[in-house]
Amino acid sequence: MSSKQDEMRERRRRIRAVKETLRDLNIQLSLLNRQFGARVDLKDADWDCLDLLNRHGPLSPTVMARTAGLHPATMTGILDRLQRGGWITRERVPDAADRRAVIVRPRRERNPELFQLFSGMNAHWGIRLTGPAPVQARTTSTSCGTTRATIPSVEAGPVS
After folding, report:
1. How far apart are the first and last CA of the chain?
2. Which residues, other chains included, contact 32 with Cβ-Cβ below 8 Å and sequence gap of 6+?
3. Does the predicted TM-score (pTM) go above 0.85?
4. CA-based nearest residue to 96, from 55, 62, 57
5. Which of 99, 105, 98 is nearest to 60 (CA)?
């Protein structure tokens, strides 16, 4: 067998290994989010929308639904649960042309509850990524960014 064929086989093996690792990571993160969400009474979609608000808010419900790839009626249910749980506020936009215009804000004073949930994991990663090889943090960040960039957006439709 030629060296070129060996290289191609090895390349396919590495690509397959990366894909498997990403699939495993996806499952582990889903389980982790479900476990943490249960501690603060947040469903998976609620948790995702709260994270979206904490990172990019305040947002309108329409923008949230579009960004999260959810139907507006589904978003309404999620926002109702988040508001009942005290995680968000909905405020009317006073000078909007449409009197129904609403902006959703996260209640950031509740964030310490979330930070507490992640404190052990964050401490572990802080040590791991700044330990003997700080280049790991750059490599991990670059790899995650590259992976994120390859995921098509919801608005792009199906991948062909």
Report:
1. 34
2. 121
3. no
4. 62
5. 105
